[in-house]
TrEMBL record:
This is Chorismate synthase. Homotetramer. The gene is aroC. It comes from Pseudogracilibacillus auburnensis. GO terms for cellular component: cytosol. Its cofactor is FMNH2. It comes from the Bacteria. GO terms for biological process: amino acid biosynthetic process; aromatic amino acid family biosynthetic process; chorismate biosynthetic process.
Amino acid sequence: MRYLTSGESHGKQLTTIIEGLPARMPLLKKDIDESLLRRQKGHGRGRRMQIEKDLVEITSGVRHGYTLGSPIALVVNNDDFKSWVNIMGEDPVEEDEKIRRVVTRPRPGHADLNGALKYGHRDMRNVLERSSARETTVRVAAGAVAKILLKQLGIEVVGYVKEIAGIRAKEIDTLSVQERFDISDASPVRVLDKDVEQEMMDRIDQAKKDGDSIGGVCEVYVEGMPAGVGSYVHYDRKLDAKLAGSVMSINAFKGAEIGIGFEAARKNGSEVHDEIAWNEERGYYRKTNRLGGFEGGMTTGMPIVIKGVMKPIPTLYKPLQSVDIDTKEPFNASIERSDSCAVPAAAVVMEHVIAFELAKAITEQFPSDQFPQLKKAIDAYREEIRCF
Ligand SMILES: Cc1cc2nc3c(=O)[nH]c(=O)nc-3n(C[C@H](O)[C@H](O)[C@H](O)COP(=O)(O)O)c2cc1C
Ligand SMILES: C=C(O[C@@H]1CC(C(=O)O)=C[C@@H](OP(=O)(O)O)[C@H]1O)C(=O)O
């Protein structure tokens, strides 16, 4: 399975094409829309999210609620495009820089300057339109399809906020996947404890008032993955590495951590590794899950627990100093609009990005043209390893 995305932030629409999904898998538009809606929520977002109402159109690969085995194309419109037709249209427009809203002032922390240097764009709008996290809309759409596949195989994936600007959510290690779903709705910030929730929102409001931005930590929890998915045989087939890579591919994410992650550096082996046990019902399992569901680049069958760190948003109302690429003069520009914190939305993005990577790994390990065959193959494998 693979997917491509296309689309600019203020262009007409965003598109993703997913290839490699088996035929005859139930797939409904409403399930994708549900994910898209969750990504739009969250305290700290700017005005743009009030303009957009993200809904998917499935334009190919699905008929009467089932996949055909052909590429699936999903489209999401940018409602904001109507205000940007002259600026974003494909036809040449007059050279008036105001009409084209030419950008010559790169924001520290965004892709503006490096993208301009790489592609030779003297108008950095040509960079920011694509580097914008607006693209995560269709990444979520692709991930929603992956989630549907996983769910029907008994695999649940859920993402939520762990920390915002140093304010930590209450420990949720003992919660079931269902209980984690209850806090996965990003509206406005969802954590277990209402006081912590309020504290996080106040901190976001403060950042906004100060013209600043804040980041945080998201966590994704996966239940139901059978042991042995991924591989130790080749470096590029290690599934934990792929998951970490996919987290790092999300805009503004600066690191990923599986299980206790960096904490392992400060502990003894006896406090890090998870003892192995077996019983008739579960087969092999670990008594603890400090390694977060991975050993040797393969799943252990225990829940996958992965965190991602999101840096503060780069566009600041109180901007840092930069240099205008036309005049080479320093400047401190004011901006039109931006999110001040997008961690709750990013948790939803992370959930979907991880889901796609897992669905990809499953379909690679159990290649099947038809979804019922895939389901049978996984069921048989689960039974085989339980009694192994
Ligand atoms: C959901 C989401 C919303 C974001 N919103 C903004 C925003 O409003 N303004 C901004 O400057 N960056 C925003 N970002 C972050 C930038 O897209 C990101 O920092 C930029 O693409 C540069 O990439 P890098 O930070 O990974 O190096 C957002 C990121 C995510 C995941
Ligand atoms: C549009 C989305 O996020 C955008 C991500 C983003 C950026 O620079 O990454 C900048 C902002 O865009 P705008 O300049 O149009 O307000 C965010 O709103 C979205 O998440 O759907």
